[in-house]
Every structure is written in C-alpha cells, then in structure tokens.
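Weekly modeling sync, notes
Attendees: S.R. (lead), two postdocs, one rotation student

Agenda item 3: backlog of single-chain predictions. S.R. asked that every request posted to the team notebook include the full sequence so nobody has to chase files. The rotation student volunteered to paste the first one in as an example of the format we agreed on. Action items at the bottom.

Example entry:
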Amino acid sequence: MRIVLLEDEQDQADLVKLWLEESGHVVQHFTSAKALLKEITRDSYDLVILDWVLPEMSGIEVLRWLRKNLDWHIPILFTTGRESEEDIVYALESGADDYMVKPLRMMEMMARIKVLGKRSGGYNTGKEKFEALPYVLDPVQQTISRNGDLVEMTNKEFDLALFLFRNTGRILSRGHILEAVWGRSPDINTRTVDTHISRLRNKLQFNQEEGWRLSAVYQHGYRLENLNQTVH
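Predicted structure, as returned to the notebook:
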C-alpha cells in the first residue's frame, strides 16, 4: 500500500516508517500538515496515518479537510496519546476509520492497517476471479474476457487493468500506478503509463455502451469509472 504518515515527532515517525516498510508498504512521511494537504491533492495514496497534536493545525482539522476535499473515502488511522473515550468518539465521528492510542504496538498496527486496506481495495491482492461486467479478470491465468471473449494483452497490460478495476472510482496518480504496476524502477517514466492506458482503452473498448469510462484527470492521473455500478 501507498501510505501517508503525518507525524511531527521524528523518533516516532522513524519507528512507524520502519515497521511499515519492513511489511512491504511505501511510506511518505510529513511533519507539516500543510505540506501533506498540498501533496495529497496531486498524488494518490491508499491510507493516511494521522497524529492528533501537530504544530500548524490539529489532526482533527486535517481529517475534516480530507473528508471534505477528497473525492473518495481514503482510510484514515488516527494515532495519539489522547485516550479518553470522548476523544476517541470525537475522532471517529469526525471521519476517522480507526484509532490507536500511543505508545503504538507494531503487530496491532499492522493488523489494523491490513483491515483498513482490505476495506478500501488497497490490500486487494486475492487470486479469485474478479468480475466487473462485462469484464471478468483472472489473476491466476492473467486473462481478461469481455462478454465471454478473451482479450489479448501483455502481462503488464493485464496488471494495469487489474489495478484500475480494483480501484474503480479513484483518481490514481501516474506515480501511484508506476509503483503498483511496474515497481519503483528509475528507468521508467510516466509516459509508459500513458502508453499502456491508451492500449487498454483500445483493447477493452471502454465506452458508454459497455458501462465504463477511463478518463485522464488533468495534472493528476487517471480514473476508471463504472457507469452502471455493477462491480462484484
């Protein structure tokens, strides 16, 4: 998963970042709320880990901004030393998906993150067939059928299609797509994403009739939309 960590205590941030990266996640750490809010409008992530007490604005203010301005419900895990029942309820009612009291415990945090990722699709790496009618994707065979007919494509085209379908409705930045589909190889640039997106449009025939739209989002990335809302 691509995770944003907002934590102004460097020692705490280093520890959490170590836990997350050792578990295979990609982490971007911010000490400034304003820097995070600027970045998150032009890139895409799977999860936000948010501290409550911050120098510029409170974690609650950041939480409310995210819920108001992002076009999809990104999972948010609140972490803080505030442990009263009133504080926990306040954070959850303000839009947090989960809440952990410091000092944090590694195994518990990893379990909570896994649950949040499964809810959002960021942890969706199952091998079962994936239906997005009229398309059926088979991760084991790496095949896609459209109205029952197999569509010929390369492995990377399949990986890209599967990632887009699993994140239907989300705006995905080119950088996010590169990391998810190609890894973080420095010799690959975002034009690779654009080229493969163009091929997918042609091969899968995304259009109003089929009930799907794959759109470029200016200065951001791409979004696959299900016009009929029939993903299973």
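Discussion: group reviewed the output briefly. The chain is about 40% helix and 25% strand.
Action items: rotation student to repeat for the remaining queue; S.R. to check formatting next week.
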